[in-house]
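M42 family metallopeptidase
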Amino acid sequence: MDTKVLLELLCNGNGVSGYEHNLQDAIKSAFNRYTNDIKVDKLGNIIAFKKGVSNSDNIRIMLAAHIDEIGLMVKDIEENGFIRFTNIGGIDPRTILGQEVIVHGKEDLFGVIGSKPPHLQEASEHDKAIKMEDMIIDIGYSKEKVHSLINIGDTITIRRSLTNLQGSRVTAKALDDRAGVAVIYETMKELNKMKHEADVYFVSTVQEEVGMAGAIVSTFGINPDIGIAVDVGFGATPELSKSDSLELGKGPGITLGGNIHPGLRKKLTEVAAEYNIPFQMEITPGLTGTDARAMIMTKEGIPSLVLSIPLRYMHTSVEVVDMVDIKHSAKLLAFFIASISNENLEGLLCY
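Structure:
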């Protein structure tokens, strides 16, 4: 399957944190061709294993990209059939007013998010953002009909399909972090052309947006020698400073900061330079906010890296990435994995 086709399939799907099982079949079907074994653990993480060529005790490298997306959840049904809702994961209420949504009840139901018209607002309300608790979802049915199709706790996603922008850029919901899943899929295909000593575990993690539970348990089970979180970074837009953002189309961001293993980060930049793969530096002095946070604190601690795909408008329904960055990210990861051996691992991990 073409990587962009997989990305479109995943972004158009429904997989709010805790409900990622809706995407399992698509991921397993795609990963199956390029790996030796696939399993789904008790929390729902999809773990695809690719065997290395070494006959000795193999190095274990784990790539993690989270499959869950932010979304909404039904919390009440009004007398007139309107649906009250809350958020799952970090959502700015200002980005959802007026959006079309799909309520995932007994069947998928189209609706719209509305609120009090500006004409009827008090003067004191004009300069204030509308709170989520003051919004409703209207699917057009009576209370009785709504109750027959929808339960409290049903999830809701923004109705949006992946769309091509100009050039090699695309816009969609849930590119955070299904773009990362696309990267690890493309990395599988690149590694299929190479020899690598390390055993590689490609993990589509769950529940990253609500506490990284998937990465915690999958890292504990795999106990890798090296962990790499593949996630998204803040794509450059006019209001962002260069030091806080990444340019689209100029390669992935290699994260530099306190949570990142310095020896592995240095090796990753050397590999990028050796194979003329463009990259940028992403400065994250504290917590990375990615699955790497879970990796570094698992068992005795896993030496970890973060590779970030530049992404604009994070945590909205119109996130934007450049497919060129996905290709460059995969090439960099594949060559990095191929460069790791039993002979050089200890030196790389030494402080």
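The mean pLDDT is 93.
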